[in-house]
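[09:14] KT: can someone run the structure on this one? pasting the chain below
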Amino acid sequence: MPDMDGFELTAAIREAETSTEDKIPIIAVTANALRGEAERCLAAGMDDFLAKPVELLLLRKVLAHWMPPAAIPMSPERPPTPAPQSQVRQSRPETLPDSHGAVDVAGLAHLLGSDDSTYLGEMLAFFWESVADTPPQLALLIRARDAAGLKEVAHAAKGATRSAAAEALAAALQDLEVAADAADWSAVEAMAPQIEREFSAVEEYICEIAAMQS
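[09:31] RB: done, structure tokens below
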């Protein structure tokens, strides 16, 4: 968020709730899995904590705990209408190609709770749409020697890449975030070519999947 972080937002929400009996469940989702981070979130007024990458099954469990579905009885005269067969996801028999380390496919399947190759390909394509502009952004920030901006973009991209199980890229972005935080420009410059290669490897793999499934 551009104007406040999660702790400030939580404080604002809890302050607004002092005049009402309602309470909004707040679940922290963060790429920062350092010791004590969960306790810090709970002390700030949040209700629960998840570290990225978040497994969908775990996310469902946490959401079910804090936001249980309303117990609405189903009328026997109006049973639910099944979805048309054309709308039911059909698993494709082919498996995804070898990523050569760009993406941990087994890890991604575990995170998403599915080994459907079509679904995994769609989610990787969605992921790439969210980070496709990151490499040029990083290059501009490095040229401008904008340490704060570089740290922010690297941190956001790191969380996204971990959720896509692009572990090598996530590790490189983690190192870049640390170097940017220290304004260590010699380290940043040394890392830049590797990060560019990792982004290219992930992009090429996702394009390969898209071509295979088109």
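[09:33] KT: thanks! The longest strand covers residues 27-30.
[09:34] RB: yep, looked fine to me
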